[in-house]
Amino acid sequence: MTQSRLAEKLDYTSECQQQRIESRETSCSVDKLMELAQILGVSTDYLLFGYESACRDDMEKYMSGKSDREKEYICRVLDAVVSNMGVLLNGERRN
C-alpha cells in the first residue's frame, strides 16, 4: 500500500502527517493507532513495539473450548500470579 493510499484511508489531507508520525516527529491519537492497525491487519503491539503479543495468542489457545467456569478459574489463577509476581520471581512481597 502506498503512503498516499494509507493517508487517504486514515482521512489525512496529505501524506505529510503520516510521514511525521512514521519519523517520530509527532504522535497520533489512540483512535488513529487502532484504525491504522485495523487497516494494516496487525496489532497495536506490533505498531508500537515491533512484535505481536504472543501472550494474546496463548490466552486464546488456553481459553478455547473451555466452559465459563473453567475460564473464570484460569482468570483467578492469573490474578494470583500477577498479584504475587515479586514473590514468584524474587521472593519479594508485592503490595
Automatic annotation (TrEMBL):
<protein>
    <recommendedName>
        <fullName>HTH cro/C1-type domain-containing protein</fullName>
    </recommendedName>
</protein>
<dbReference type="InterPro" id="IPR010982">
    <property type="entry name" value="Lambda_DNA-bd_dom_sf"/>
</dbReference>
<feature type="domain" description="HTH cro/C1-type">
    <location>
        <begin position="19"/>
        <end position="47"/>
    </location>
</feature>
<dbReference type="GO" id="GO:0003677">
    <property type="term" value="F:DNA binding"/>
</dbReference>
<dbReference type="InterPro" id="IPR001387">
    <property type="entry name" value="Cro/C1-type_HTH"/>
</dbReference>
